[in-house]
């Protein structure tokens, strides 16, 4: 049974729809624009990540920690691709959710777990690259290949656990809300203030999301990649530096263009709503489109992060797997310099598995 009197994040003790939110619900052009963006993202997401998943699982060996993290990232991206059609239908129906409160909670969790698991996974990939390139001997000697895979799998589970624990309030609350004046039932477009017991609880919830799931991982990722770039700039060949720069550019693009606006606006909008009765809802809603674009950009991360993924993709597309960046001559020089440059951590043990013909030279 719907409740028409739940207080929401308006800063008041009774429900009152602010002008920014009302404009969003009544703006047909905005709904169509956002829906079209979601349609494009859905197609690119499912095609790109479907191909990436197939290559990562069935065509890329060995399964290094970075490959495991990429598989985890692809799973979250494909989940968003599967959920977006429901969001598109919801918006084209005038923000009237007809699938019930349980489905609304599931769709909301899919959106936010994707964003934050993507952020944490990118951080993990950055840490693996940092350990493999900045601390290669210590990383290779102290942790065996089998242990690295186990650590990667456990890390993925811990990421999901952390994200779901922070987002727990969204799991135990009915996120639908009926608006009598518009005769629509919204889904996560109006948050009930009673979702959390106090303003302090709201502040803790928002701070945890923004700091632990965005700001801290962003700082760690930036630190790792800056150190990698500085190391490669001094020691590596031109092809390695180019790929590293391309990878870092894509990662930072995803953080600054896809994740930062949404997290900053979410925090600012919630603080303004809770304490000042102001709203940034239109800007926040548009920033959700940007956050979904990360699922289209992630395959580019795989392309620049893993040489074997790059070679398999070229072969699949009937392109020569030998290029100026991946020729046998360059590969030989890279391996003779340091085997861990291949596919992130690529310690010498993994290099032997990838190229069995070298076993006789051991």
Automatic annotation (TrEMBL):
Name all G-protein coupled receptors family 1 profile domain ranges: 48-302
Q: Which UniProt keywords apply?
A: Cell membrane, G-protein coupled receptor, Glycoprotein, Membrane, Receptor, Transducer, Transmembrane, Transmembrane helix
User: What membrane topology does this protein have?
Assistant: Multi-pass membrane protein
Q: Which PANTHER family match?
A: G-PROTEIN COUPLED RECEPTOR, P2Y PURINOCEPTOR 8
UniProt cross-references to Gene3D superfamilies, sorted A to Z: Rhodopsin 7-helix transmembrane proteins (1.20.1070.10)
Question: Would the keyword Iron-sulfur be found if you checked this record's keyword annotation?
Answer: no
Q: Any stretches that span the bilayer, and where are they? A: 20-47, 67-89, 109-131, 151-171, 200-226, 247-272, 284-305
Q: Name one GO molecular function term.
A: G protein-coupled receptor activity
Keyword Iron carried by entry: no
Q: Where in the cell is it found?
A: Cell membrane
Name by which UniProt lists this protein? G-protein coupled receptors family 1 profile domain-containing protein
Cellular component, GO annotation: plasma membrane
Q: Which organism is it from?
A: Eleginops maclovinus (Patagonian blennie)
Q: Which InterPro entries does the record match to this protein?
A: GPCR_Rhodpsn (IPR000276), GPCR_Rhodpsn_7TM (IPR017452)
Q: Report the record's Gene Ontology biological process terms.
A: phospholipase C-activating G protein-coupled receptor signaling pathway; positive regulation of Rho protein signal transduction
């Amino acid at each position: 049974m719907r409740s028409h009197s739940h207080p929401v994040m308006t800063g008041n003790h009774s429900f009152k729809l602010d002008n920014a939110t009302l404009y969003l619900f009544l703006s047909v052009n905005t709904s169509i624009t956002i829906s079209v963006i979601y349609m494009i993202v859905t197609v690119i997401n499912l095609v790109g990540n479907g191909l990436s998943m197939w290559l990562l699982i069935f065509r890329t060996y060995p399964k290094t920690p970075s490959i495991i993290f990429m598989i985890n990232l692809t799973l979250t991206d494909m989940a968003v691709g599967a959920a977006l059609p429901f969001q598109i239908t919801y918006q084209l129906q005038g923000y009237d959710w007809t699938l019930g409160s349980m489905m609304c909670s599931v769709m909301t969790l899919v959106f936010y777990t994707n964003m934050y698991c993507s952020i944490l996974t990118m951080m993990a990939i950055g840490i693996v690259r940092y350990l493999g390139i900045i601390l290669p001997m210590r990383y290779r000697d102290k942790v065996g290949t089998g242990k690295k895979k186990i650590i990667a799998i456990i890390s993925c589970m811990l990421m999901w656990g952390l994200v779901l624990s922070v987002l727990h309030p969204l799991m135990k609350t009915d996120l639908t809300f009926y608006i009598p004046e518009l005769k629509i039932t919204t889904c996560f477009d109006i948050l009930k203030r009673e979702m959390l017991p106090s303003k302090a609880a709201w502040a803790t919830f928002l701070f945890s999301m923004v700091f632990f799931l965005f700001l801290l991982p962003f700082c760690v990722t930036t630190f790792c990649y800056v150190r990698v770039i500085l190391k490669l700039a001094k020691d590596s060949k031109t092809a390695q530096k180019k790929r590293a720069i391309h990878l870092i550019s894509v990662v930072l693009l995803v953080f600054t263009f896809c994740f930062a606006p949404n997290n900053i606006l979410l925090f600012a909008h919630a603080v303004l709503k809770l304490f000042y009765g102001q709203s940034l809802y239109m800007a926040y809603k548009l920033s959700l489109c940007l956050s979904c674009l990360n699922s289209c950009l992630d395959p580019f991360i795989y392309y620049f992060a893993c040489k074997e993924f790059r070679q398999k993709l070229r072969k699949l597309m009937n392109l020569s797997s030998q290029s100026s960046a991946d020729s046998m001559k360059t590969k030989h020089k890279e391996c003779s310099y340091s085997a861990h440059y291949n596919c992130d951590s690529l310690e010498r043990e993994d290099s032997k598995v990838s190229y069995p013909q070298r076993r006789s030279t051991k």
